[in-house]
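Appendix B. One record, verbatim.
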Amino acid sequence: MSNQTTVTEFFLLGFSDIQELQILHFVVFLVIYLAALIGNLLIITSVALDHHLHTPMYFFLVNLSILDLGSISVTIPKSMANSLMNTKSISYPGCVTQVFFFLFFIGADFSLLTVMAYDRYIAICQPLQYERVMNRGACVQVAASAWISGILNSALHTGNMFVISFCRGNMVDQFFCEIPQLLKLACSDAYFIETRLLVFSACLYLSYFVLIIVSYVQIFKTVLRIPSEQGRFKVFSTCLPHLIVVSLFICTGTFAYLKPTSRSTSGLDLVIAVLYSVVPPVMNPIIYSMRNKEIKAAVRTGWRLFTENRRSIFLL
């Protein structure tokens, strides 16, 4: 293909050409997607309905849940639909849309994770300054900044990616439109600018990761001075899983976008993509909320009210 105008669609990587395995792929992704959907929607509704949870930490948590829902909804449903309909195609505009929204959601997601780490640092290490630093206006501003940074980053990469000419076919070696795999289809001299932008973005997000690490080091130092063993356990049981998922997210994402491209299809690329695009949206609700007594209490209250209202409707 001589230029991008001749590309009207791309073909995504299927997990298997065997129908039974395609159905298995559909079922596994459906279970994963429903788990992420239910977990994140429970967080959003619980926080919205319980005024006791209208605090900075839960405000950021609701934003994170919305971003997680967005990021997993960009990739999983299309892959499920392709397996169910035994097809691999995605239209050119569909691929552009997928790249834009995926980069937007994961970029804003990581920015927000950095903000949440800083929020926990202030709450635990400088509790007397917490209300002054994390006031309502500041929370709205930093959350909006995370969303805006995601949009700008995504627009920059998407706009630059799709002015590139695709000369090496239209088979994308991934289950969604991923920039490193699209670059493999680009003309040899056309993708250097995008490669430099990827390196810049990786350095930026690695600096965010350093801020997260520094925040948690300070948190752990403070927690170790807490005399209560139960109090230490409560903080560690939340912070350590969070740190593990964030580390998995940034390490696998950086590896996927910066590793040298190969002309052949790699199973490692598929595993890495699942680890940074699918696992965090499923794990975040479990880490931040399902082990949180306040969230669980709000969910139980909401469920009790729902069942009581349903019973009263039936009695009418």
